Amino acid sequence: MGEQLTYREAIIRALADELDADVDVVLFGEDIGAAGGVFKTTVGLQERFGTVRVRDTPIAEQAIVGCAIGAAATGLRPVAEIMFADFAAVCFDQIANQAAKLRYMTGGQLHAPMTIRMANGGGVGFAAQHSQTAEGWFLNVPGLKLAVPATAADAYGLLRAAIRDNDPVIVLEHKGLMGGRGDVDTSRPARLGEAEVVRPGRDMTVVATQLMRHRAVEAAELLAAEGIEVEVIDPRTLIPLDLATIVESVVRTGRLACVQECPAGGSWGATVAALVTPTAFTSLDAAPLLISADDTPIPYSGPLEDAWAPSVERIAAELRRLATG
């Protein structure tokens, strides 16, 4: 048993533990110092570690990520916060063309041991420019790693693992999960690239991340009352992807669904389906299913936003059809 922490508290604890463990770790971003971050995920860190290691920055995402790349190349382990994942579009060149390619284009002479934290996802009424799940933007950028924690334990463990990694890692922290509480083992970081079988089952495999992981488990419990046993897998990191765990499950269950809080096109779920299908083709009893958000910007209206993302009821209905199809 570990400590009971909220998702938000787990992030603060992970940052504090890495700052304490390694003097080369530095944090910077907008309002992360005295204000404690817009989502209160850096509360108390500047007071504890000082303004040299926990720095407020101007409102300039290009400058934040550019400084992180330079700091990483010269031996530090910077953790840069981009307040909303949506704002990664402002500094996408630095992420995709500089950080991701630094080790490759220098023949291994330079590394970019940097972490970029971003608040991800909807469900909190922040409208179309502040609610996107941005993981799909980074899937086609070799050189990046991508963590998508869904629990307090993973918010802690994956963030510490990211900071210790010698390549650039993007950690997407879901806004709708900040208050969720869970048991956290603070004795060691997690490992990037290891999926978790959240719920065992025999009839189908469901792969889901972040908020959709929790909704998929709720849907699975509804179906269990009908005699349909759903195995739920959280990949925890999309890059690297633990494909072996997913394939092993699909070979046993014969069916695959991916549940995601984003439109279907160019998505991580489509990638998982494309990777699993040729490997487990002879085991599939039905075509892989994508349960996705609508192909529109995210509405501001609460009822419309609720309708936009897959609900527990919609997930259960689509899985029910998959089980009988």
Helices and strands in order:
Elements: E1 3-6, H1 7-21, E2 25-29, H2 45-49, E3 54-56, H3 61-73, E4 77-84, H4 92-99, H5 102-105, E5 115-120, E6 145-147, H6 152-164, E7 169-174, E8 181-184, E9 196-199, E10 204-208, H7 210-224, E11 230-234, E12 237-239, H8 243-253, E13 256-259, H9 268-280, E14 289-291, H10 302-308, H11 312-324
Low-confidence region ranges: none
Q: Mind summarizing the main beta sheet? A: 7 strands, mixed
Helix content: 25-40%
The residue-averaged pLDDT reads 96
User: How much beta, percentage-wise?
Assistant: 15-25%
User: What is the topology, as strand order, of the major beta sheet?
Assistant: 3-2-4-5-7-6-12
> Radius of gyration in whole Å, from Cα?
19 Å
Q: By helix and strand content, what is the structural category?
A: alpha/beta
N- to C-terminal distance = 42 Å
Q: Which overall shape is indicated by the principal axes computed on the Cα atoms? A: globular
Number of strand segments: 14
Number of helices: 11
Topology order in helix (H) and strand (E) letters: EHEHEHEHHEEHEEEEHEEHEHEHH
Describe this structure in words.
The structure is a single chain. This protein has 325 residues and is α/β, with parallel strands linked by helices. Helices cover 36% and strands 19% of the residues. The protein is built from 11 helices and 14 strands. It has a 7-stranded mixed β-sheet, with helices on both faces. Helix 9 (268-280) links the parallel strand 13 (256-259) and strand 14 (289-291). Helix 7 (210-224) packs across helix 11 (312-324). The mean pLDDT is 96.
